[in-house]
Structures are given as C-alpha cells and as structure tokens.
What we know:
Layout: H1 4-21, H2 39-48, H3 58-75, E1 91-94, H4 102-108, H5 110-115, H6 133-143, E2 149-157, E3 161-171, E4 185-196, E5 202-209, H7 211-218, H8 226-240
Parallel strand pairs: 1-5
Antiparallel strand pairs: 2-3, 3-4, 4-5
Amino acid sequence: MATAEEALIKKSADIYRSILHDGTDNTTQWRHGAPPTFDSVNQLFEEGRTKEWPKGSLEEVVQNAIKSWDMEISHKIRLQDFKTINPDKFKLIVNGRKGLSGEEILELGSYNALLKSSLPKEFQCYKADEETFESSHDAFLSALPRGFAWEVLSVYSGPPVISFKFRHWGFFEGPFKGHAPTGEKVEFLGLGVLQVDESLRAEEVEIYYDPAELFGGLLKEPLISPSQSESEDNTVNVAAAAHGCPFSK
C-alpha cells in the first residue's frame, strides 16, 4: 500500500506534468499573446544536465514544479491564471530578504525578484531597482540566447515542505550590460525550500544562492563600445524573444 507521501508525490507529478505538456484553457492571458516554446532551452537542458530522474520520482516532481511555476511567472500576466501557486498566501523569499507576493513578482519579473540586493548601489553588479520586467528579460535572454537551464541536483525532504539543491546554467554568447560575451558556460548552485498546500500549489518558495557565481562569468570581459553593444543587442533580442523562461525545460 502506498504511503501518504507517495500518494501526494504521484498526485503532484500528474498535476505538474499536465501544466508542462497539456497547456491551459483558452481564457489564459499570455504576456506575448501565446504560450511559449522552449526548443532552444530544451536542447540546452538535455545536453547539459547532470541528473536524469526517474519518471514520477520526487526529484522529477520538484524539477517540474519549479519550472512550471517560473513559466507562469515569466509568461502569464494574471495571477488568476496561475495553476502552480496559492495566490492568497504565496511568497518568494530570496537570500533571507523580505518575501514578495505573486503580484509583486508579476510586476518585477523573475530575474529582478531573484537579483534584488540590499547592498549599496555602488557595490551592486546588477541594479534590479532600475530595471523593468521587460528590460531584465531582454538583458538575460540576450546574454544567454540558448536559454538558462535549471535542474534539481538533490531533494532532501518530500511534500508538504520540500527542500532541494539546484543548478542553473547557460552559455554567455551575447553582450550583457555592455560586457562582451565569452562563449563560456556560466552557472550557479543554490538551495531551496518549497511549501505546498493540500492542492499542491506553492505557498512559499525560499531560494538561497550566491549571485557572485553568476556575475563573475557575465562581467568577466571588458566593456565593449556603445555602438557595437547596441548592434549586437538588437540582433540577439530578436532571437531571444522566441525562447522560453529561464527555468523551463
């Protein structure tokens, strides 16, 4: 007989697999007019992942859950269309800072939410307070035109409080904030805690990581000339618009 945790894991696997592969109803409002496609980042994920979790395992469930949540934040414009979170309770807490609500994250964008900093501005590698949803996504999708893949490395506890370790990576092949691309892989590791309700919707997500691991790669090269940067930005942005969200497979 299956344990209560095993039954919950199976239910969550069914829910998140449905969100990832079956789409949503016709009333969903998409930021770019239609559901995203993930061909480039799918390939990046398949070629670069270090773990291949069994279907229906807790690790696969957690991986799909976070990817689905980030897909909705990046591509849906109304909280009422979200299937992965409890909008009345949801909070995102990054590196111990004050939690952000679903509405706040929709306004900021996932990059700005993850990269907000309490450091004085002169010490900030990236000034999230000066970026919009659109400008932040343009900056990172231009720098990482093949996408920004994400995988679960370990899961330490099952629902309703799930703790896990993750890896985030991409290839720096376009300019970032005036810095020339290196063509090298950039990545960082982190830890997370995901709390879900009885309907398996996220109520709270805590993420802990070192942003310096990411920016060390993105700011490695010297600044390029404004005219060169602008030309490369325009070229890469057209291609980047077709890619999916940073986490999604």
